């Protein structure tokens, strides 16, 4: 069957070595070794509770915000250990943006929503120009260009999620993390986000957590399958490689069972 962990030969934006995460006494993930390639979409799949979102939050130090969280191992971003004492987590989060499961626009105008993070991070420039560039990248500009003063809360769910993507892009990140970005959306809005992901990957590295196997197959270049170990709750990496191989010729029976819906 061969090695189920097929690390990409391409340049890596992240190199994870023996990464584990604890929440107090709960071992959430363990022994994750993974290279995530530049300008590719990498999907994290697996059943609920296997640690996908926990792993995603290790990549921009969001777990730091949970007092009981403790990360083990090494997470290198372009060769630098992001958990080194000298590293500012705020700078990590500027370079590694995040889009959450449910759209979370602020109770502000569309324009103010987009430029909020950019201004906080000291990005200079005209607010309208920053908003226009990010909204165009997020494929939302044509729908809102005449309503930039309207509250972001008045947009539809799919538009709100693209607004949140625009807000992440306005900070000029290098990587975009997406935690089930379509789970609260209808099929048409989901398709727009998927099309957008394939467009954005030309300029950004994207890592997406998804429960939707078809979505992982459609949008990602690489897929990592995580599973909670039977004898404990900690999630671990079962198989990793090019998406077309994972979905057509998985090397692990557990991967095939999950993808074909036998469990999960």
Largest sheet: number of strands, sense, barrel closure: 6 strands, mixed
Distance between the termini: 23 Å
What's the overall geometry? globular
Uncertain runs are: none
Task: Tell me the fraction of residues in β-strands, as a range.
Answer: 25-35%
Order of helices and strands: EEEHEEHEHHHHEHEHEEHH
CATH level 4 superfamily: P-loop containing nucleotide triphosphate hydrolases
Task: State the domain count.
Answer: 1
What is the CATH architecture descriptor?
A: 3-Layer(aba) Sandwich
Strands in their spatial order, largest beta sheet: 6-7-8-3-9-10
Structural class: alpha/beta
Helix content: 25-40%
Describe the structure.
The chain has a 6-stranded mixed beta sheet, with helices on both faces. A 4-stranded antiparallel beta sheet has the order 2-1-4-5, with helices on one face. The chain has 264 residues and is of the alpha/beta class. It has 10 helices and 10 strands. The protein has helices spanning 52-58, 89-95, 110-120, 127-137, 141-144, 157-170, 187-200, 213-219, 243-248, 253-259; strands spanning 12-23, 26-37, 41-45, 69-77, 80-81, 96-99, 175-179, 205-209, 222-228, 235-242. Helix 3 packs across helix 4 (127-137), helix 3 packs parallel to helix 6 (157-170) and helix 6 packs parallel to helix 7.
How would you summarize what this structure contains?
The protein has 264 residues and is an alpha/beta fold.
List the helices and strands and how they pair.
Blueprint: E1 12-23, E2 26-37, E3 41-45, H1 52-58, E4 69-77, E5 80-81, H2 89-95, E6 96-99, H3 110-120, H4 127-137, H5 141-144, H6 157-170, E7 175-179, H7 187-200, E8 205-209, H8 213-219, E9 222-228, E10 235-242, H9 243-248, H10 253-259
Parallel strand pairs: 3-8, 3-9, 6-7, 7-8
Antiparallel strand pairs: 1-2, 1-4, 4-5, 9-10
Helix pairs in contact: 3-4, 3-6, 4-6, 6-7
